[in-house]
Amino acid sequence: MSAHLIVLRHLWVLRRNRPYQLIVNGIFEPFLYLLSIGFGIGGLIDVPAAAGPPGTTYAEFVAPALLATAAMNAAVNEVVSDVWWRIRFEKVYQSMLSTPVTVTDIALGEVAAAVLRSVVAATGFLAVISAVGLVHSWWALLALPATVLVTFGFAGAGLAVATVVRDFQHQQYVQLFMLPMFLFANTFYPLSVYPTPLQAVIAALPLYQSTELLRGLVLGDPGSGVLWAAVYLALFGLGGLWLADRRLPRLLLG
């Protein structure tokens, strides 16, 4: 297996070109949401009873959701746009395939590289919310491996999407799906505020499961929902990786 060579290649490119993006996209942007909504609007509203353990503030409720969103954005943006560009225009992968690197190595390497970068960004944001006093449980230490699972889920799915997108403007449909998830998938208010028929739809979204996983750990309130979310995200990522591995040979060798 030569998937690690793909990871090393991306680390080299990142070191030379865009290291600041990890800070801006992974830490600065979600922190602004936390300041404006978690602390700002949170001081004007009552925290719903279903928001978490007794005494949970609105900022504490929102922070894990923003952590999940940061992981999602970093993974999807890294994989969908960059991989699509390499497939359609740069033809980097075709050059790699003239070496012992295989199509499966490329798929695994791209997902691993996206997970690594996303986890670095998300870990920085987790450190920020810990520093401002929004983490009070040792369960939050498990949020780091949980973030790996979140980024794996979205990176695997994003890689599959990158093999399906035909034109550059079609990537806007990905953002059209991600933005409503960010707004409605339990990010700013609990699932109980929705009508019963919609609750099942919201609960089926990957960002909802990601938020449930990280919120349960960061707030120190893990339950059966945390285990189900972990299984969901693992299957989500594996399914996307399997589909991408099936489609990449047609694009690169066809």
Question: Helix share of residues?
Answer: over 70%
Give the SSE string.
Answer: HHHHHHHHHH
| Overall pLDDT level | 82
Total domains = 1
CA radius of gyration is 19 Å
Number of helical elements: 10
Q: Which runs of at least 5 residues are low in confidence (pLDDT < 50)?
A: none
Strand portion: under 5%
Quaternary status: single chain
Characterize the largest beta sheet: strand count, sense, and whether it forms a barrel. none
**What is the rounded distance between the termini?**
22 Å
Coarse shape = elongated
Count of DSSP strands:
0
Descriptive account of the structure:
With 254 residues, the chain is mainly alpha-helical. It has one domain. The protein is built from 10 helices and no strands. Helix 2 packs antiparallel against helix 3 and helix 3 runs parallel beside helix 6. The longest helix is centred in the first third of the chain and has 33 residues, at 58-90.
